[in-house]
Amino acid sequence: MAAKTSNPMEEAAEMSFGLFGMFHHRERQTSAKEKPGSVCCPICRETSEKFEPDETIEYLVKVLQEMRHQSRCSGAESCLTEATLQCPCCDKRFCQSHHAAQLTALKDSGTALLKDLDSLLFEPDQNGDEKLKQLQSAMSESVEIESLLAEQLHRKFADFREQIGLCQSQLQSPLVPDEAERSVLLLDRAVLRQLTSNGASARLARLLPEAKSRAKRAQERWPERRLALQFDAVKMQYDFEGLLAQHASSAVFQSPYEGLPPMLTRVRQQNLSQKPWDIGILSNLEGIVCCDGAIKLRSSVGDSAGSAKELTGPLLVINAQCFPTKMLHVTDLEVKQVATITPKFNGEGMPGRMHIYNQRQLILTSDASRHRVTVFNLEGRTVTSFGEKGSEPRQFHSPLGLSAFGGQMFVVDAKNLRVQVFDMDNDYSCLALIKHDGFSNGLQSVLATDSSVFVVDRENSKMFVFNKANRQSVAPPLKLECQPFDVVADDHGNALVTLVREAKVLAVNRCGTKLKTFEFKETAEGRQQMPDDFPMMMMMPMLMANGCPPRMFHGLAFESGSRRLYIADLMRSCVVVAQL
Predict the structure, then answer these.
(1) Region 540-566: what's the mean pLDDT?
(2) Which residue ranges contain the repeat NHL (predicted)?
């Protein structure tokens, strides 16, 4: 219409029949007001150079298109056949042929899914035969290695016992075996004893040079026998156990957390008179008794052995916040106190963080305010204590979490942004420093396993995983939901981390991959009244609707026999026992 110079609507109005009834067109004269190319609106008859859309006609066109589309088959764009059937699920309409095709495709999908479910539920692993062969091969190899090791160990220990026998016979024989020389030395000894007692200085002065010369010749000929016995049965046992544990963890399948419910099942909740901070599992009770309510070594009990009570484990060791009782509280697995341990610090001190090293029956503690690390035995006697404020090896700036494995002790040196590694068999000398660019001064805890080292950063809410052998990071830092506090190992070398304010426990494997997050669901049974000594300044912003303070998980312990978690709830002054 715009291409024509005349107005089509007016042209239509000016059309008429001629004299002989034939249709003809009368040319219209363009007025001065009209411009060539203008278009006349079919409704208002006004001319315009602008093209405005007509909403009414646009709506009608859409309605017609939808009606045409609804009546057509939606099976294919090219299908113009009228739809006669409608799907009850998606409301699409199909013709007979496309409807049959849809039914066939649906049936094929159901058959494929059924096959997958049958394979998942009833058929063995596709690579099961190969895996079984590998396991059988590993079993036969382990038997061969066991026999070979037994033979080698038997031969080594036979040679060792033979050497011990020779040393014993030599020690039982005289140091100077020559009888004549021995007689002369015995005579010198008798004369020297007589002269020194009688005060005969003249004869003593004459005899002394000759006696010295004879004694010196004898010492040169028969030197002092010294033992160089490089045999530590305890260390050998623990090192061998660590080697076997490392082999076992890499040779068998690790138990996954898949299939476990995401909610922690609370077994019990034991209220305490103090606020629990750290929890440890004491499982090695060999030679340990309870005497007068305190943990003692059987070898040190002495006359009071009759009143000593045998302890059956495992047990819990609880360290309260700020160490108010100056004792560590030992309880059974029902969180009932059975004994105490009183650490004997050299002067003032308190265990800010604590770790139970069961292999050697030691308690490792850190004192952040005094920048020291102290190691106790289970009686509370100090084995070693070292550290001062500084940045050199064996110096600390706010040491916190500790862990030990295979004769090595790992200590979080928070303000120095590092973890120090110490050799427990070499006077706790510093072996290495673990550092990372992502470390902050909020480093909180460390966990050492057979092959990995886990470090949690409370300020950045991150976890770092390192290779224990080369101390290199094995994965990017794992971002956590909220601030972590403690980290312990499960029975498969994975790490379990407490998330403080979320009342959650996170499982992470040695590759730094999140396995599962266990939440703790509050129940009416688990609620308790507000402690009388709870600070009102803290209580007001943190009360929940039920009148209780929120849970705040800190210390964590895992008991492998029952697969239970023991969680220190600081705000509610209780220990929560949860079943995995």
Answers:
(1) 74
(2) 383-425
Measured N-to-C along each axis, helices 179-198 and 201-221 cross at an angle, to the nearest 10 degrees, of 150
* CATH fold of the domain at 266-524+548-579: Neuraminidase (2.120.10)
Confidence of residue 29 (pLDDT cuts 50, 70, 90): very low
Of 290, 317, 286, 311, the residue nearest 301 (C-alpha): 290
Phi, psi (rounded to 5 degrees) for 309: -115, 130
Under a CB-based contact definition with an 8 Å cutoff, are residues 175 and 185 in contact? Answer: no
189, 160 Cβ separation under 8 angstroms: no
> What percent of the chain clears pLDDT 70, i.e. is strictly above it?
76
Q: What is the model's pLDDT at position 217?
A: 83
Distance from CA of residue 22 to its chain's centroid? 100
DSSP-H helix ranges across 381-471:
none
In whole angstroms, give the CA distance from residue 25 to residue 27: 6
Predicted local distance difference test score (pLDDT) of residue 365:
93
Cα distance between residue 529 and residue 561, in whole Å: 33
Show me where the domains of the chain are located.
Answer: 50-58+96-223, 266-524+548-579
Integer Cα distance of 461 and 338 in angstroms: 36
- Answer for the pair 419, 413: CB distance below 8 angstroms, yes or no: yes
Helix H or strand E encompassing 455 = strand 452-457
What pTM was computed for the model? Answer: 0.56
Q: Which of 389-403, 420-434, 436-450, 520-534 has the lowest mean pLDDT?
A: 520-534
Backbone angles phi, psi at 192, to 5 degrees: -65, -40
Nearest-angstrom CA–CA distance, 391 and 397: 7
Give the whole-angstrom CA distance, residue 330 versus residue 363: 13
